[in-house]
Amino acid sequence: MPRPRDLIGSPETEAETPMRRLTATLAALCLTAAPALAQCGGSFGGFVQGLKAEAVAKGHAPASVDRFFAPVRHDPAVIRADRAQGVFQLDFTSFARRLISQNRISAGQANAKKYDAVFDRVEAEYGVSRGVLLAFWAFETDYGAFQGDFNTLNALVTLAHDCRRPELFRPQIFAALTLFEHGDFDPARTTGAWAGEIGMVQMLPGDILENGVDGDGDGHVLLKTSAPDALMSGAKMLRHLGWRAGEPWLQEIVLPAEMDWSKTGLRTTMTPDQWQAMGVRPRSGQWLTGLPASVIIPQGRKGPAFLAYPNFSVYFEWNQSFTYVLTAAYFANRLTGAPVFDAGNPEPGLSGAEMKRLQQKLAARGYDVGDIDGILGAKSREAVQKVQQELGMPADAWPTAALLNRL
Length: 407
Fold this sequence. Notes:
Layout: H1 22-31, H2 44-57, H3 62-69, H4 76-83, H5 92-99, H6 102-114, H7 116-126, H8 130-141, E1 150-151, H9 152-161, H10 166-181, E2 191-192, H11 205-211, H12 227-240, E3 250-254, H13 272-277, E4 281-282, E5 294-296, E6 306-308, H14 312-318, H15 322-335, H16 352-364, H17 378-390, H18 401-406
Antiparallel strand pairs: 1-2, 3-4, 3-6, 5-6
Protein name: Lytic transglycosylase
Pfam families: PG_binding_1, SLT_2
Domain Peptidoglycan binding-like: 351-407
């Protein structure tokens, strides 16, 4: 679900990235009681009174609750930002070139050196490579420079009051209240993304409660102002989401001219030896590991190609866009010394309108494409690959004009 640029905070990035976190939704469902899920809408003042009563019922001191909610206001700009999310249609190569600038590479290298001791701790305690965190840090807030200027409490309460996704945002209000009681949240001054995410690596209050780390030893977890806190917390969260310590996440590969393209995609995993037997080889160096991995070709068999290891799946817990995830994983490699990827010569993709027509045709044939929205999501990719097989075309899951014409 695409979100405004201010959530990733880059003036040089015109692309919009999707609102993150399946894990946030799951955490929200765990943090909230069933009766609260239905509480939304109505007058905003009455809604806030209901939140205050629930907070007291949860055991928070009435005086603390009053201070926390005193400055809260409905923010129409938050609703406009939520409704105005643009469609996400850039292909991987275009998106990667837009997000990965020389400035971001140079700043990443400088921050790696500046916080070398912190990254050493991260790698020792959580097994997360510095490149992985640097890439997230860059894409989310340009290394802390652009963290969003929406009042966080106003954003959370406004979105909880709105009845689209109260189950996601309502529990985050009470998590923010707990942070306030710890001295780590100022309801009047804490700002961040329109969706309530805070700090250099953009974490929701519930994520901060669960995975926040006092990286600089000052007794507080302050992700807005402390890079050690942000980096340690981000690493702990990745580990909590399933990151496997010390293992790779992505490796660029070279494909043979012909192979069974239906085996590409995240649904199929094999060992590097098995891929090698099919003619796949690393673009440089040796195979990284004997772990099971998937061949992913984001722009079809003539475009860039990568081997995705188990850690790659953890990226989707942070952000659900395939293109964003692949770009972040690749940028992590670049920041740890990998060369620029080979873009190849992929066949042109479809426009948004053409993609909608293709989705309609696939749906008419009984394929599940998810929403007919002009976006090449996971279900649409799977449907494209299946219909390519059905039509005897190379099943590389890349929709082209030739496929649209065949249908």
